[in-house]
Amino acid sequence: MNKVDYGREAFQKVLNLMEEHHRWFRDSIPLIASENIPSPAVREALISDFGNRYAEGWPGERLYAGCRYIDQVELLAIELGKKVYDAEFVDVRPISGVMANISAYIVFANPGDLMVALAIPHGGHISHGKLKWGGTAGVVRNLDVERYEFDEENFMIDIDGTRKRLEKLMREEGKKPRLFMLGASVFLFPHPVKEVAELAAEYDAKVVYDAAHVAGLIAGKVFQDPLREGADAVTLSTHKTLAGPQHGMILSWNKYSEDFKRVIFPGLHSNHHLHAVAGVAIALAEALAFYEEYARQIVKNAKALAESLHEKGIEVLYEHRGYTESHTLVADVSRFMDGMKAEKKLEEANIILNRNLIPKDYRLKTDYRTPSGIRMGTQEVTRLGMREEEMKEIAEFIKLVLVDGREPREVAARVREFRKQFQHVQYAFSSQTEAYQYIKIR
Ligand SMILES: *Cc1c(COP(=O)(O)O)cnc(C)c1O
After folding, report:
1. Full set of structural domains in the chain with CATH
2. DSSP E strands: which ranges in 169-289?
3. Closest CA to 128 of 105, 151, 150
4. pLDDT digits (tens, 9 = 90+) for 148-168
5. Which of 127, 223, 280 to mutate to test the pocket of ligand 1 (most atoms within 8 A of CB)?
6. Which of 232, 370, 404, 407 is most buried (most C-beta within 10 Å)?
7. Residue 242, pLDDT above cutoff 90
8. Averaged confidence pLDDT in the chain
């Protein structure tokens, strides 16, 4: 085949595959806890010309021309961020949550310093991880990572145990923590920010709260308020519960503003995805208007889904704590199959969620590829207008596959039918285009 024909065929193939993806998601139940569907206005920002431009530096002090409107949008994003989170300092330039974390590692610690973070089976994120696991903190900043003691029974950081662990490290190895990371990828209950900040103060260390998962819940005032509880900075992804475009953000105090600004540019970024910055501004405006209601419904739905699954024989963890105070719930499915098989079968049934390590895997040393659990989040189905009644139906679909062993494709047909009435994003100023509609401009 000649180059032009090969190119034309590949061109068409890519476009077709993207359209098929959109159709699949329109017909599916999206339960991945770290994702969401942005509003049509955010999607419009993402295809704007902002995404083809550069604006290095701070608004008003750019190293590029052509930023007349871009600067106004970025300043608005910063103002909106300050309002939504009651923050003194906001930087909307980190292009992802991991980049926001790296900037905090650079501002608050030096290579070789000791950082305390959650282990992955306790909900920790790989960007808080040590070199041995290929974790970002180790790989990029050469931080020495020590884990928190963790109370598995209650899915809580064990403050006293952690204090003792750190005293022992100090005594035996002369190591002293410089940074305490909080926040998680399995984030069921608020973290003890105040207690960790008190512990950090004993070592003159800093506290960073990674709100990637719960940024929308904090905006809606239903989870916790890490800045008031003692965090020196909050890092976040803007596309999980916040439902903006894929991007990152920093919230902090004026005393750290110059350090963050310098690290984020020129330290870590050149272009900072200006189309996404516009999308973040839109998402924050929508958060101001709608997220108290949205966040409340997300948590109600998470509790309802957990209860329903539990009634149907699927072991959702932490019943005695009300299962969850966030968008996320985790279930142990090892009675039926491993988490990998559960994920695959449910995916065939158009129910999209992911397998996950759960605390018992830490003791059992389960292979991370076939963990005992699955993780679900209700933020995206809530955005589509679903409420407690629909959570019962979702639980029934999951039960049909995992407990009753029904043919996934047969369940997929029922899921497709169920999804028909939920095709528009709620909690947005304008929602004329269907949530998963494929937009052609070519
Ligand atoms: C998702 C997640 C991140 C990474 O965010 P990106 O925006 O994908 O870089 C960081 N920290 C935690 C706790 C997360 O769950």
Report:
1. 44-286 (3.40.640.10)
2. 177-182, 206-210, 233-237, 248-252
3. 105
4. 999 999 999 999 999 999 999
5. 127
6. 232
7. yes
8. 97
